[in-house]
Specification:
heterodimer, A: alpha/beta, D-Maltodextrin-Binding Protein, domain 2, eleven-stranded mixed β-sheet, 13 helices, 11 strands, 17% strand, globular, B: mainly alpha, MetI-like fold, two-stranded parallel ribbon, two-stranded antiparallel sheet, 4 strands, 74% helix
Chain lengths: 349, 550
């Protein structure tokens, strides 16, 4: 028994030492970027960054947008990273209230439309935006000879009974964005009545985007609902990720006035960074066309910098709403919990 | 003296739990519940003011109890035939039953959807046969759906733990009873069942804790109308950032488990009987009579329907392209379409998963074995106290602990927040209670006088271990190893927080594919799921090799 025990301790010690050694790997100049699951960029771009500015980018992913931000807030005494990307306008107030970012006025801000700059103090700088909206299965509607929905109001009409699947705003970020779209369109006093009618029209609620899109939407194997809440870029993604080359998207996006909610994603420098100038360089890089032109095909949203050329696929197949709903971050922060509770009460119970 | 030595042996286990479990957990609880030196009650009032959370706790409890009961009842016949009969392909089938364990919930949901969904195989066949009828089954977002999924996931726990123990129960007791005139049923009820009790209880406890902290299954299969405590913790911590509430709920979960464990430990000690176990293959019979053949066939068929059909449906989806059979999804896995820095070739994902799983299994086995040894040999208060404590990591919500890691492990020498070690450690922590429960019944059943006799005859402790304990324990350790491996292969909740983005595990890669639209993404997720199943099965076969080695 004793021999064994010694062996055991040895193995554990060895593991610890080895861990230490691996942990103390090469340390060139680097900047750490904390972000969420959906962040992506090309290898080429990052090596360009390294060549041009002489530092490496370390990426740290921490769950979805909400989880990542919460962890950034929790670790504010001892930040995990220098720069944080992925605060959106629904979480913006939470981030600003927690005071985890320091202001930085990047020269690239001049090319970013005013409508996207929600933080006057420039602690959070807009990087990209996209619309959450209804998607529909074009083939299904053609086959049935029904007109695809044109706006929120259609969903409560009898023809569209049992056709829609949405996500629970309490557990899903597009679900919450869609709830905000209804608040923006029907007002704080009226949106619950809309939902009441939607419920009577047999709307189907899932907890997450994947189980709605890949489970209940008719484009999925076995799905029965031809209308789903997704993104305005989803039809373009359907083309890009189709099995064979296709010319036309199999799905359409509903982008009429008041039916889509605009999500804007921001980047900010974390308070407490030891590498302020490198962090600023990284932020500038992320707002420059070099990085921005990659955003569409890597993250499926639109670049904030208006000087950025869009890829053909986006120009032809990804639309954006001309009049999207936007709510002020302060209003969202103040009412989010109450709206979700009221919604739950009305739609689920 | 004796117990001192045992305690000394326990130090690595206590250190491990102290650093990676209690320290982060207490840090996060303190920070959220008493942020400024005083109890933060402002955001907690809802915990008691409305009946909502009491309702959630009640629901969580009884669905877990029902799931456990059903799983045990349904899996017992399987455990019986695996313990008592030898037949072709047995090892393979047993391995296959553990595969559900590693599947991400979204993937399981897809499997059931393809099978039982409104346009799934069953309903389509039914409606083709009877064109004017409604769908035969409609279990979407119902209570039954996630109950079924709980059985699907946990079947193997009962099968392996009870089956392994059963195979070594001496058959002569039963024979004597029958010779003395007891009917089969009576012999089972009065002899086999009581002897099996420790293993059944151990398995039931694991299943219960798993279902009690069920997250993905309830979230995805149950839909938004059902919530367990774990789901509430997730909502409070992530979407509302109400950390006091999330922590309070996590604490409720922990206290509940402690209470349950205290009850269980007493029960277990009462039911545990030491007896002379036989070799696993000694009591194994060839199938001779047609009655036995019928029993085995029916049981296997039932298992095939319950576990095999959804898996087969998944497998099929990964090979079914737009124009029928195709390998297009597998081919696409090899392609980095956007030149992304985060693209992971399938072979790398397999290597990552395997690496973490082997590391986690090793840690969990070593620690679990030390822990179980202590619990089995020490009858003092220490064991009574530590037994429930060892079970805690399994019942603590991944998100609470994940946040705990972030705030606690942030300074040297423990600055492990971004270390590649952390995923293996996190997995080992969840697997550790499993290892303990897998080997404890076997250890306890080993009569002390065996060891004493050997010691009296001059055997060194090492010799005793090698010649007496090891042969009897090998099988139980193997069961523990299989579970540790499977837990690590399938873990998602904690991994998503602690793994480096360039070295994701297979479930994380599946999740990435499923978060973008497009037929190819879905197909690739199914293909990766199939690879996950194959890799897991291969891992099991590798572990089984050790069983026959001396």
């Amino acid at each position: 028994m004793k021999k064994w025990f010694v062996l055991l301790i040895l193995i554990i010690l060895l593991a610890i030492v080895f861990g230490w050694w691996a942990f103390k790997e090469k340390k060139p100049k680097f900047v750490t970027l904390m972000t969420h699951d959906s962040f992506a960029a090309s290898e080429e771009l990052l090596s360009q960054l390294e060549k041009e500015f002489g530092f490496e980018l370390k990426i740290l992913k921490s769950g979805d947008a909400g989880a990542a931000l919460n962890q950034a807030i929790l670790s504010k005494e001892n930040p995990l990273a220098d720069v944080f990307f992925g605060v959106d306008n629904t979480f913006m107030s939470r981030a600003l209230d927690a005071d985890i970012f320091i202001p930085y006025t990047s020269p690239h801000l001049q090319h970013i439309p005013e409508s996207l700059k929600l933080d006057g103090s420039n602690r959070l700088l807009p990087v990209d935006y996209g619309d959450v909206c209804l998607n529909y299965d074009i083939a299904w509607f053609n086959q049935k000879g029904i007109r695809p929905p044109r706006g929120l109001a259609d969903l409560i009409a009898p023809v569209y009974k049992s056709l829609t699947v949405i996500q629970n705003p309490a557990t899903s970020s597009p679900g919450l964005a869609f709830l905000f779209a209804t608040v923006g369109t029907y007002g704080q006093d009226g949106f619950l009545d809309y939902w009441e009618k939607l419920r009577h029209n047999d709307v189907y609620v899932t907890n997450g985007w994947s189980d709605a899109y890949y489970g209940k939407f008719t484009r999925a194997k076995g799905g029965t609902r031809p209308i789903v809440v997704s993104y305005a870029s989803s039809p373009a993604a359907e083309i890009f990720y189709s099995e064979k080359k296709v010319q036309k998207a199999p799905t359409g996006a509903v982008l009429s006035k008041g039916s889509a909610y605009r999500q804007i994603e921001f980047v900010g420098i974390l308070r407490g960074t030891q590498k302020l100038d490198l962090a600023q360089t990284l932020v500038d890089f992320m707002l420059s066309p070099a990085f921005q032109k990659e955003i569409p095909l890597h993250m499926w949203v639109f670049p904030a910098n208006s000087q950025t050329p869009l890829p053909d696929l986006f120009r032809e197949h990804a639309q954006q709403s001309q009049e999207p709903v936007m709510l002020s971050p302060q209003l969202i922060q103040a009412k989010r919990e109450r709206w979700i509770e009221a919604w739950t009460e009305r739609v689920l119970r | 003296m004796r117990s001192n030595r045992h305690f000394f042996l326990l130090v690595p286990v206590l250190l491990f739990l102290g650093i990676f479990y209690f320290y982060p957990l207490i840090s996060i609880l303190l920070m959220s519940l008493v942020p400024h030196g005083a109890l933060e009650v402002g955001r907690l009032y809802k915990l008691i003011s409305s009946g909502y959370y009491a309702g959630v706790l009640w629901f969580t409890t009884w669905q877990a109890a029902l799931s456990t009961l059903l799983t045990v009842i349904i899996a017992l016949p399987g455990a019986y035939i695996f313990a008592r009969y030898g037949f072709k392909g047995k090892a393979l089938i047993q391995n296959l039953t553990t595969i559900p364990f590693v599947l991400p919930t979204v993937v399981t949901a897809a499997g059931f959807q393809a099978l039982l969904g409104p346009r799934g195989i069953v309903n389509n066949t039914w409606m083709n046969l009877f064109p004017n009828q409604h769908a035969l089954v409609n279990i979407d977002q119902t209570f039954w759906f996630f109950l079924l999924a709980h059985i699907f996931y946990n079947f193997t726990v009962v099968l392996r733990i009870v089956g392994g123990f059963w195979s070594r129960l001496p058959g002569n007791l039963l024979e004597s009873a029958q010779i003395l005139g007891a009917s089969r049923l009576r012999a089972f009820a009065t002899i086999t069942l009581p002897l099996l009790m420790p293993a059944i209880l151990a398995a039931a406890l694991l299943v219960f804790v798993f279902c009690f902290t069920s997250f993905g299954v309830v979230l995805i299969l149950g839909g938004p109308r059902y919530a367990t405590v774990e789901v509430e913790i997730y909502r409070q911590a992530l979407h509302l950032f109400n950390l006091p509430m999330a922590s309070a709920l996590a604490l409720v979960q922990i206290l509940f488990t402690l209470g349950l464990m205290a009850f269980y430990t007493r029960l277990e000690r009462r039911t545990s009987i030491s007896l002379i176990m036989q070799r696993a293959d000694e009591g194994r019979k060839k199938i001779r009579s047609s009655g036995a053949r019928l029993v085995v066939s029916i049981t296997l068929l039932g298992m095939g329907l319950l576990l095999g059909a959804p898996l087969a449906a998944l497998l099929m989806q990964s090979f079914l392209g737009e124009d029928g059979l195709s390998l297009v999804y597998y081919a696409s896995l090899l392609e980095n379409r956007t030149g992304s820095i985060l693209y992971v070739a399938p072979i790398r994902a397999i290597a990552n998963s395997m690496g973490y799983a082997l590391g986690a299994s090793l840690i969990a086995l070593v620690l679990g074995w030390i822990g179980a040894n202590f619990l089995a040999k020490s009858r003092g208060r220490g064991a009574a106290f530590l037994d429930p404590v060892f079970m805690l990591p399994l019942s603590t919500s991944a998100i609470t602990l994940g946040f705990g890691f972030i705030i606690a492990l942030d300074e040297p020498p423990l600055n492990l927040r971004t270390s590649w070690l952390l995923p293996a450690i996190a997995h080992a922590m969840v697997a550790f209670p499993f290892v303990i429960r897998s080997i404890l019944p076997a250890l306890r059943s080993l009569p002390q006088h065996f060891r004493d006799a050997a010691a009296m005859l001059g055997a060194s402790p090492f010799q005793i271990w090698l010649t007496i304990e090891w042969p009897l324990l090998r099988r139980a350790l193997l069961v523990g190893a299989v579970f540790a491996f499977a837990i690590s292969m399938g873990e998602f909740g904690a991994t998503v927080f602690v793994v480096r983005p360039q070295t994701p595990t297979m479930p994380l890669v599946i999740f990435r594919y499923l978060s973008h639209p497009g037929a190819l993404n879905y197909g690739m997720a199914m293909a990766m799921s199939t690879l996950l199943m194959i890799t897991t099965a291969a891992g099991f076969l590798l572990l089984e090799k050790f069983r026959y080695k001396r």
